Amino acid sequence: MPQLDLNLLELFESIWRTRNLTTTGEQLGLSQPAVSRGLARLRETYGDELFVRHRRGVEPTGFAQTLAEPISTALAIVRRTIEKPNFSPTEDSRRFRVALSDIGERYFLPKLADWFANHAPHVSIDTVSVSRAELLAGLDAGEIDLAVGFLPGLGKQVYEKRLFEEKYVYIARAGHPGVSDRLRASQLRELNHVVGSPPGTRHAAAVEKVLTGPAVRAAVTMRVGSFLSIGPIVANSDLVAVVPSNLAELVSEHVALQLIAPPVRFPSFGVSMVWHRRFHSDPAVVWLREVFSQLFGE
Fold it and tell me: Which residues contact 244 (CB under 8 A, 6 or more apart)?
């Protein structure tokens, strides 16, 4: 059986991640000839080209794609043997990166900030809002520790745990000439709608499928990339919107809105935590998931 040292596996992982031999050398502290020699040894060991030249660097062969996950998993296991096996939130420092939509930031972060201040004073958190492709890449690379939101269909490489079930409600401004605390299905096609579509989420698709379907045929006259802008837009116009109920309740504390049960059925959806299977046992990430479950789980 051929012998492989861990340095070659780390070389493979870095080339896979960066798709660039020069960048790999810089990250690993290797000269360009050393990178080339290491890649040659990998090719000889596996009997495959592994990475081929591309105009912007290199691209993996089909065989290299089959090696990427087992090599990354093996390296993660080895790294865990030399890392601190436990995490103490009262003593340890850790900066987490969590993928959240704009709604998620508004809903989760105030309570999290207060909880961290009292129970985990050295823990900090950065949030990111990314596309689905960027989210999967970030989770796989360990650059994103956790994603929380409406995130269906991310595949078998991630684990998912539901926090709570959410529903949609209509919002309209107080004093709207055509809306007074209730709606009829026949009214919807007469009202102009604004729809929110935060990056990486499926809210817009779920809402518009109902609004533009044959049973409703409502007009969508504005689409925005942030849910947080919808409240002020609706409060200062005759537009109406379909938004998650938790957001509607938060926004209605600051602007004069009516919250109305939809006269047609919009699908409810689960707000879940998602993390990559490679980091399932990371003590710090396990702790973070437990905090979310404790604070926001049903």
Answer: 103, 166, 167, 168, 169, 203, 227
Residue 21 to residue 39: CA distance in whole angstroms: 9
Phi/psi of residue 177, nearest 5 degrees: -65, -20
What is the DSSP pairing of strand 269-276 with strand 146-149? antiparallel
pTM of the model: 0.64
Mean pLDDT by 10 residues, the chain (298 residues): 80 94 92 94 93 90 93 87 78 92 90 94 92 91 93 89 94 91 89 84 81 88 88 94 91 91 91 94 93 93
The C-alpha atoms of residue 72 and residue 195 are separated, in whole angstroms, by 40
Task: Kindly list the structural domains of the chain, giving each domain's residue range(s) and its CATH number in brackets, ordered by start.
Answer: 6-82 (1.10.10.10), 94-165+270-296 (3.40.190.10), 168-267 (3.40.190.10)
Contacts of 218 (CB under 8 A, 6+ apart): 188, 189, 191, 193, 211, 212
Quote the DSSP letter at residue 53: E
Dihedral sign, CA of 90, 92, 95, 97?
negative
149 vs 130: CA distance, rounded Å: 12
Phi, psi of 150 (to 5 degrees): -90, 95
> Is 143:223 a contact under the CB 8 Å cutoff?
no
Q: Classify burial at 294, counting beta carbons within 10 Å of its beta carbon; exposed 0-12, middle 13-18, buried 19 or more.
A: exposed
